[in-house]
Amino acid sequence: MNDTSSPALSANDAINAALSQQWDEAIRINLHILEENPDDIDAYNRLAFAYLQKEKIEQAKTAYQQVLKRDPYNQIAQKNLKKLEDQKTSNRKMLIASPRMFLEEPGKTKVVSCIKLAPTSVLTQVSCGQEVQMKVKKHCIEIRTIANTYLGALPDDISHKLNKYIQAGNQYQAIIRSTGKNLLTVLIREIARGEKYKDQPSFTSSHVYIPSPSRVESSQDIEDATLCEEQEE
Asked: Which of 10, 17, 113, 120 could bridge 210 with an S-S bond, Cβ 3.0-4.6 Å?
């Protein structure tokens, strides 16, 4: 029962399998993608992540090493290989992204579709489950990798609301929920409330926030990834 010719076996299927915690299926799909395209760096990173969820550490290391053979400066592979080496020397178990991080809680989480996206070549370097930072600017909140690579921005109304909460002491975590060509969604989770808004939830619902088409800008609309940059005094 060979379905390797199935056109449905794509990056989106691999991501959906991961979101559904079907790690064996995620491994199978990513291996199939790599059979078709042995230089697909994103598939190797997803494969390594799935292996980590199955605690197959050596296979994960091999997958990350395959990434670095093709892209020696790939930050995802560099960072995770370093974690694996640190784990080995310190005898500590590597912190693997828990599926719980994707659970939505009314009032505390929201899935947001980002706007003003970075080029596809940048977006393909990040993976589902990867933690990112929310960088507050004067007129928006940017989504950046931990290494400070620009990925996109939150829509204006969400940026304005969260900026107000952050200034009052609220704290948030952002996790990549899905990524693809001209697509980046993040799960934003409230992890602490400041005194001013201690009795006020950050979000009114846990539904996905998708900006209207007129407000979404593709990667071709921006040459420079410093979108809402330095208008600060």
From this structure: 113
CATH superfamily of 11-90: Tetratricopeptide repeat domain (1.25.40.10)
Q: Which of 48-57, 180-189, 196-205, 210-219 has the lowest mean pLDDT?
A: 210-219
Nearest to 77 by CA among 29, 30, 42: 42
Burial status of residue 217 (CB atoms within 10 A of its CB: 0-12, 13-18, 19 or more): middle
Distances (CA, A) of 168 to 140, 162, 198, 202, 216: 16, 10, 10, 12, 29
Q: Residue 93: CB partners within 8 Å, gap ≥ 6?
A: 87
Q: Which CATH number fits domain 99-221: 3.40.50.1000, 3.40.1190.20, 1.10.357.10, 3.30.70.2330?
A: 3.30.70.2330
Q: How many residues does the chain have?
A: 233
* pLDDT, mean of residues 179-201: 87
Q: Against a cut of 0.85, is the pTM above it?
A: no
Q: For the chain, what is the radius of gyration of the CA atoms?
A: 18
